[in-house]
Amino acid sequence: MLAKMGLIKSIESVSDVSNLLIDDDQVKQIDLWDAAYKGDPKWIHKKWTSALNNPHSYKQKSLNMPKILSKKMASLVFSKKVNILVTEHTDNKDDSATDDDQSDNEANNFIQSTLDDNYFYNNCERYLEYMFGTGGMVMRFYVANGKVKIRFATADSFYPISQDENGVTECVIASKFVKSGKYYTLLEWHLEDDKNYIVRNDLYQSIDANSDDLGTRVPLKTVYGTSVNDESNYPKLLYTRPTFIYLKPNLANNFSYNSPLGISIYANAIDTLKQLDQAYDMLNQEMEMGRRRIIVPDQLMERRVNPYTGIPEYFMNYDEQVYQGFTFNGTAGADSPPAPKDITLPLRNQEIIETINSLLDILAAQTGFSAGSFSYSNTQGLETATGVISRNSDTYQSKNSHETILEDAFKKMCQTILELGKASKIYTGTTDIDVSVNFDDSIAKDRTENANYYELITGNKPLMPRKDAIMQAFGLTEDQAQDYLDRLNEEESQGSMDDVLDNNHYEDTNENDHEA
Length: 516
What we know:
The protein folds into 3 domains: 2-48 and 58-270 and 392-443, no CATH class; 271-380, no CATH class; 467-515. 39% of the residues lie in helices and 22% in strands. It contains 13 helices and 20 strands. Helix 3 crosses helix 6, helix 8 (270-289) packs antiparallel against helix 9 (349-366) and helix 12 packs across helix 13 (478-515). Keywords: Coiled coil.
C-alpha cells in the first residue's frame, strides 16, 4: 500500500498534470477490496493473549465470499454465449434480413477474427470477475504484427488523469515487473490534445519491488528492444475516441462522489463479510474443540520408568487424542472404583449454521443478489442458487444494470478496433457501423416459471413461433433454425403417412378375411 501511495506522488512529479484524479484514500479502498478478493483480508489475522500472558496469533478460517460474489456476478453478466454483431450503418434497415445475412460483412468478420485471436471471451469473463471484486478494469487496444491486440489491466494499475461526461478521457496505466533480477515500472500514458490521442510509454528502474518511488528512467529498448514506441499519435480525424476503455460496476461511488473510479460490489458489505468469516471460524473451532474427550484415571494409563529417577511415571499416549488422564483421589468412595468418563461437550453447529445463513441473506441484499442466492449446509457446505426465480428479482435487475455498462463498452471496443485496423491498413471496410450485443439470459432466469406465467395470462396459447423457440433453445441462427424446423416437419409428415398406410393395410386385411 505504501508503495502505491508513493507511486502516486512519483507519477505526479514526473507528469505534466498537477494532480491525478485519485488519492491515497481511494488507493486504500482498492487495496482493501483486492485483499478481500484474494482471500487475505486484514480482519482474518487475529492476535490474543493467554491467561499466562503469552501472545498468540492465528489466521481465521474464511468463507472467501468476495471471490464467490465476484465470480457469480461475472458469470451471470457475461458468458461465451454473448453475441456481438457488427453491421454497416444504414438509414434503411432491412428487417427481412436473416442473422447470417447481417453477419456476413467485412466489418463483422474483422471484429470476430480479432476477438478470436485475442481469446476475448475467455479473458473478458476473467477480468470482469476482477472488476466486480476490485471496482474496475481497463481494456487497451494497439496494433502489433499486423493484428489488433487487446490487453487488460486491473483496477490497482489504473490512475485517471481527466474525465468528462462520458467517463475517463486520460489516464496512466502502471505495470510493475521483474526482469533479470531488476525491478521495472512501465507507465503507459493515454493523453490527448486538440488534434491527437497520444500514447506515451515511460520505463523506470527502481532499487527493489517495494520502493516508494519510480526510480530512474531508462530507455524502453532496455527491456523491449524496438518492439515498443516511446510515443504514438492517433489523429482525431481518424479516431473518434481514445484507444482505452475503463469499465466499472454500475454502482454509484458513495465513497467519493467526484471520483471517476468504480467500487466493488461488496464495498458496502465489509462488516457483513467480517461477521461471516468470524461465524465460519467459530464453526471450525466448534468442530475442533468438540471432538470426543474421555478422562481416564491415571492408574489406567500407560506408564514407564524414568531412567534418571528410577520412578514409574504415568504418561499420555499422544498418538491418541481421545483420552485425557486425571489423578484419582478416592473421593468417589471405596465402592466406586475409578473408571473412564466421557466429558465431550455438545456441538452448536446448527445454531452457527443458522447464523451464517442469516448473514448470507444480508450479504446478498447488500451486493445486489436476491435473498436465498447463497446458503450454507452442514452436508454440502456453501451453495449458490442455480437460477433467478422471476424477472423482477434483485439478481436479475442487477445483472441487467451491469450489462448496460458492458454493452456500451463493447460498442466502443468494436469502433476502436475497426479504426485501428483502418489506420493500419489491415482493414479496408467502413468504420460507420451499428453494433448489437445480445447477452445470454438463460442462466439467470427460471424458464419454466416464466413460461407458466405467460401461458396463464394468454390462456395457454402458444407464446412464440416454433422457429423462434428453436433459435433461443439451441442458440442457432435463423437459417439454422429454419433447417431444423424443415427437418422436423418432414419427419412428422412421414410419420403421419406411415400411419395412413398402416391403417389401409389393416382395413384391407379385414376385408379379405371377411370374404374368405
